[in-house]
Amino acid sequence: MSLLVVGLSHRSAPVSVLERAALGADAQVKLVQDTVAAEPATEAAVLATCNRIELYADVDKFHAGVAELSTLLAQHSGVGLDELTPYLYVHYEDRAVHHLFSVACGLDSMVVGEGQILGQIKDSLARAQELHSAGRLMNDLFQQGLRVGKRAHSETGIDRAGQSLVTFGLEQLAAGGAVEDWAKGKKALVIGAGSMSSLAAATLARAGVAEIVVANRTYDRAERLAQILNDADDTDVVARAVPMDAVPGELTRADVAVSCTGATGVVLTAEAVAAAVEGRTGEPVAEIDVRRAPKQPPSAAGLAADENCPLDLTAEQSGFSVMGEAAVAGMAAAELEQHAAWVDNGTVDIRETGRRAPESPEAEAELIGALAAAAARVGRIPERRRPEPVAGFARPAPALFLLDLAMPRDIDAAAHRLAGVRLVDIESLAEASADAPMAADVDQVRRIVSDEVAAFGAAQRAAHITPTVVALRTMAADVVAGEIARLDGRLPDLDERQRGEIRQAVHRVVDKLLHAPTVRVKQLAAEPGGAGYADALRTLFDLDPETVAAVSRAVDSTDEKDRPA
Q1: Predicted TM-score (pTM) above 0.90
Q2: 227, 284, 424, 504: most buried by Cβ count inside 10 Å?
Q3: Which one, of 220, 232, 272, lies nearest residue 249 by Cα?
Q4: pLDDT digits (tens, 9 = 90+) for 502-539
Q5: Residue 191 belongs to what H/E stretch?
Q6: How far apart are alpha carbons 147 and 332 in whole angstroms?
C-alpha cells in the first residue's frame, strides 16, 4: 500500500473555487467514509481548512487511487469534476509525506509559519480515529507531522516569518499601522464561536478593544466564549453574548466585525453592511468604482445588471468592470467570445448604467478575444478579484472594519465597494500574503522537513519488512521444535539436563545464522527502494503469505492499543 494525497489549496485554485468546494463537518465525515469504502483505499483522512481541502489515503493502485479520490472530492464538494480537475494537485509516497510535513510547519500556509494548522491537523487525525479510517499509516503520518511541526516552531524562528490569519487580517485592517493603536478603545462584534472566532476574539481583546460582542447560532457557545473573555487576567475587555438575530443592531454599534461561521451562505449581505454604516454615520452609503471616483448611492439592491449584457456578471463577478480583464476572469471561452462581441458594439454608457464608457472598445474587445483564445487552450482564465485603484484616488476613511475568515465567505464581497467600509477577506489575505517577506528561518525549516521525510520513509520501510522477519524467525523456531521432538523420540535415555543443552545449542546455531541476515535486511529495507527485500525473503525461505499477513495484523492491533487517544 502507498500514501496518496489529492487536494486543492490557495496555491492551486482561486478563492472562488475554494469557496464553492468548502466541506462542512458532515461532508468531511461522509467523504472519509466513502473513501475507505472505495476499492483502492484502506485508510483515509481529510484535512480541510479555510484555504485547503486535502484527501489522504492509503491506496494499492496509483492511477485508480487518483481517479477515485478526485471523483469523491468532486462529489462531496459539489463542484463538477471537469471544473475541479485543473485546480487539483497530487502527491504520492515520499512527496505526499513531504507535503504534509511542510503543511504542518506552516510552509504551505497563506501566512508562512502560522501555527494554527497544527490544531487542524490534530483535529483531522482525531476525526479519522473516531471513524476508524486511520490505520498504521495515517496514525504514523499525522502524529509524525505534528511532531515535525512542533520541532520547526521550537528549533527555528519560523514564528517570526508568519502569524495566524487572524493577526495577519487585523494588520491588513490597520493598513500599516500598529494593531494595538488601531484597536484601542474600539467596539468589536465577533460572529461565530468556533476555534477561529475564539482566536479572533482573544486577539482583539489582547490588542486593546474595549468591548466584544459574541454572536452565534447556538447561544450557549457564545455565552461561554464571552465568559472566558471576561475571566481572562491579561485583558480588561468587557464581553457579552447575543443571539444571531441581534447582529444587525450590534453591527450598527460596532467599529470592527470579525466573522467566521460554518454557514454555507452569506451571513452579512452588502445591504446589511450599508445599513449599519448608514446607522453609524447618518449618511447614505455610496458605492465606489475603484477605477474612477465615488458614485452616488445606489438602490438597496446594488448596481443593476448592464442592459443587454449576455453574461450575468453581477451574480458571478459583483463589482467588476464589465469591460476589462477582471470582469471575464474564469469565464468559459464561448461566453468570452459572446461578451467580446457585446463590448465591441460599444453600447455601454456611463450616463445610462452608472459604469464607465470604454476608452477604446476595440482594444478591450481585442483583449477579451485574446482571453477567450487562452481559455480555449488552458480551460480557464486566472482570477482577479477586482481592479486596482487608479493612482491618486483614495477611499474615504472607513467607519466600519470587516474581517471575513470564513470559507465559504460570510460577508458579501460587494461590501468591498461601499464607501466607509474596509473589508478584508480570505481573497484579500491571499493577495497581501503573496508579497509578504519570508524569514531566513524558512530554509532551516525546509531542511528539517527533508530530514524528517527521510527518517519517516526509512521507518516505514523498516516496519514493512518486520512482519516478514518475524514470520521467518517463527518458522525457524517451529523447525527447531520439530527436530528436538524427533530427537527426543530417537534418544529416550537422555536426561533433562542433556536435553536442555541440546535445545540451547540448536537455538544458538539458528539464532547466529539468522542474526546477521535479519539485521542487514532491516537496514537495507530502510533505504530507498528497499521494499523488495521483504519479497526476496518470502521467496527464498518459502514463507506462507498468510502467516506474514497474520503477523502484520497482530502488530497493527498492538499499535492501535498503544496509540494515544
Answers
A1: no
A2: 424
A3: 272
A4: 888 888 888 888 888 777 777 776 666 666 776 777 77
A5: strand 187-191
A6: 44
